[in-house]
Structure formats: structure tokens, C-alpha cells
Design a protein that fits this description.
By secondary structure, this protein is α/β, with parallel strands linked by helices. It has helices at about 45-50, 70-80, 95-105, 110-120, 140-150, 170-180, 195-200, 220-225, 240-250, 270-285, 295-305, 310-325; strands at about 5-15, 15-30, 30-35, 60-65, 65, 80, 155-160, 185-190, 205-210, 210-215, 230-235, 255, 260-265, 285-295. The longest helix is centred in the last third of the chain and has 19 residues, at about 310-325. Bound molecules: adenosine-5'-diphosphate and magnesium ion. Its EC number is 7.6.2.2.
């Protein structure tokens, strides 16, 4: 099977800032590929390059077998893009928006209309097609964005953080919509900050950080790298965190003093949970909350890079805060 998307040693700088630093990626035709990374990892930059909106400084990029620099026009005719900020018109109804996109892509009036109806039906929006988009819920709006990106029936679809900012219900709606694309032969590249999202939707995942690929594999392979499920404990008293950590023992513990939280590997799930409850009870350490859950992106990161993803996010937020203050 030929790869639908290839990025080979791709570099991109914005002035002094290295956004991509030798990024490698290979996505098989007809698969869903997750690009997982924290804020600032280079996800949007990579998507913009693959979708011909931005030129790389170095490295080779092909989409549907076509070099994105040399054959940008042909690439554009074969792709769909759902960006972080959607381009739908708030005042118009969902159907009108889709029709407008169809006309923009040179479908005739009749074909644009029938395509709009097809897509509304497919994404569960047929009943609300006349309603103005400003009255849509977050999940409905993202499904409409998704429909718009599919107007031309692209071979390759790029979804840049499709569920960021949605509530859990909206997220589930979008997940279902994306899943419904699978099997139609479309190749989907999806960026996300959530391991759970990549896990639910992707056949394979590339974890990126600092503009490079730090790991690649099927969701289960990546989870195995970080030791699978975790038990998550919130203590009532932060001062007993270290003591509790020592009692629980083992490697790969994550202690978070600010949130009074301990994360520990739980490969045997309920057995690990029961063990933790017993150990804490015997030492008279009170837990406010205790649960078994999937590893978070922070833990994947800690395990792959030796430092938490949150550290980086906090640094970025600090920079942004300073900039805002300077502007004020
Ligand atoms: N237009 C720009 N000018 C300068 N720096 C940028 C620009 N766009 C992105 N960056 C920086 O490049 C890095 C990668 O950004 P981006 O691709 O948006 O990451 P992500 O989508 O993973 O959050 C970040 O450090 C970001 O601050
Ligand atoms: Mg982004």
C-alpha cells in the first residue's frame, strides 16, 4: 500500500523560532492517523504545510503521491481541511453554508444543493439545515465544518484539533462523525492534544514534541510504552503526598503537589486500585478521590521525553501572559 501522506525531515522556522525540527510522518492510504502533541508542538504548522497553505524550509512532503511544493494546485483539489478556526457564515443556515462551499468549488447549483443535503443527512444535521449557524451547539457546528471540508469528496482530509473547546457531548458527536468517514476510503490526519481522542479514532499515532516525532505506533503500542492504565489518587492532605508515594512504591509514579494527586501504573486495574486503597487506609492517609483511568498525554510525555507536557504549556502560558501585560 502506498502512503497517502509522507513528511520526510521537514523543517520550518518562524524567524528564530523552530516550529518543525526534522518532522517525519508516514500515513497509509485509507487510514486514520493521529498526530498527538501538546500546545506548541508544531501540529498546526505541519497541517498547514501538508495542505499547501505554508511552505517548509527543508524536507520533502507528499500528499496523495504529489509533492506539495511542486504540485500545490493538484494537491489542493484532492484534500479537505478542517482548521482550528472554521470559516462558516454564522448568519446563514447550515444548508446555505454548504451550498455556498459547493459553489465556491465550482459544483453547479443543482449539484451543490444535492451534495449539501447528502452531507447534512450523513452528519445528522438534516433537521436543522435551515437554522442559522449561530444557533447551533458546539458539536453541531463542528459537524457542519466537517461536512464543509468534505464537499469535494477529498482523498485526504486534515482535521486540526477538531474537538478542542467542545463539551463532552459535542466531542462525542464529532467522534461519531469522524468514525463514520472510516471505510469510505478517505485518509484522515487528525491532530489532537488528547490521548483519549487519538486512541478512539486513530489506527496509528505519531507523538510529536518540539517539532519532531518522538514516538509512532498503534494506540495499544503507545499505551504499552507508558504502562497502560493508571490509578489516580487525590489526597485530602498534600503534606502526606511523599509518604503515600513511598508506600505505593514502584517506578513511574507522578506526584502533583498542587493538586494533591498521585498517578501510579495500574496494569491489573481493579487489583491495583484495591491495593492502593488498602495501603493508604493502613497508613491512615485519607483519599478524597481514587479511580482507574487511561494514561493522560502528560504521562505519555513524561514517559517518552522525561519531562511533563504541562511544564511546556505553563511556560507558554507565562510567555503569553507577559506579552498581554506588555500590550496593556
Ligand atoms: N506565525 C508564527 N510566528 C511565530 N511563531 C509561530 C507562528 N505560528 C506558530 N509559531 C510557534 O511555532 C511553534 C509551533 O506552533 P504550532 O504549529 O501552532 O503548534 P501546535 O499547533 O502544536 O500548538 C509554537 O512554539 C508557536 O508559538
Ligand atoms: Mg495548533
Amino acid at each position: 500500500m502506498t502512503d497517502a501522506i509522507v513528511m520526510d525531515g521537514v523543517h520550518k522556522r518562524y524567524g528564530e523560532k523552530r516550529a518543525l525540527d526534522g518532522l517525519d510522518l508516514a500515513v497509509g492510504g485509507g487510514t486514520v492517523h493521529g498526530v498527538l502533541g501538546p500546545n506548541g508542538a508544531g501540529k498546526t504548522t505541519a497541517v498547514r504545510i501538508m495542505s499547501t497553505l505554508l511552505r517548509q524550509d527543508a524536507g520533502r512532503v507528499t500528499v496523495a503521491g504529489l509533492d506539495v511544493r511542486e504540485r500545490a494546485g493538484e494537491v489542493r483539489r484532492r484534500i479537505g481541511l478542517l482548521g482550528q478556526h472554521a470559516a462558516v457564515d454564522e448568519q446563514l443556515g447550515g444548508r446555505q453554508n454548504l451550498e455556498m462551499f459547493g459553489r465556491l468549488y465550482h459544483l453547479g447549483a443543482r449539484r451543490a444543493g444535492s451534495r449539501a443535503d447528502e452531507l447534512l443527512e450523513r452528519f445528522g444535521l438534516a433537521d436543522t439545515g435551515r437554522k442559522a449557524v449561530k444557533r447551533y451547539s458546539g458539536g453541531m457546528r463542528r459537524r457542519l465544518d466537517l461536512a464543509a471540508s468534505l464537499i469535494t469528496d477529498p482523498d485526504v482530509l486534515f482535521l486540526d484539533e477538531p474537538t478542542t473547546g467542545l463539551d463532552p457531548r459535542g466531542r462525542t458527536e464529532v467522534w461519531d462523525a469522524v468514525r463514520s468517514l472510516v471505510g469510505g476510503g478517505t485518509t484522515v490526519l487528525l491532530t489532537t492534544q488528547y490521548l483519549e481522542e487519538a486512541d478512539r479514532l486513530a489506527d496509528r499515532i505519531s507523538v510529536i514534541d518540539g517539532g519532531r516525532t518522538v514516538a509512532e505506533g498503534a494506540p495499544d503500542e503507545l499505551k504499552a510504552l507508558v504502562g497502560g492504565d493508571r490509578v489516580d489518587i487525590v489526597l485530602r492532605d498534600a503534606s502526606r503526598l511523599a509518604e503515600a508515594g513511598a508506600l505505593l512504591g514502584g517506578t513511574d509514579l507522578v506526584l502533583d503537589a498542587d493538586r494533591r494527586r498521585i498517578g501510579a501504573p495500574a496494569p491489573d486495574r481493579m487489583a491495583a486500585l484495591t491495593r492502593a486503597v488498602r495501603v493508604l487506609a493502613e497508613a491512615g492517609i485519607e483519599a478524597e478521590d481514587i479511580a482507574v483511568r487511561r494514561p493522560t498525554l502528560d504521562e505519555v510525555f513524561l514517559s517518552l521525553t522525561g519531562r511533563p507536557a504541562a511544564e511546556r504549556r505553563t511556560a507558554e502560558q507565562a510567555t503569553r501572559a507577559t506579552k498581554t501585560e506588555a500590550a496593556a
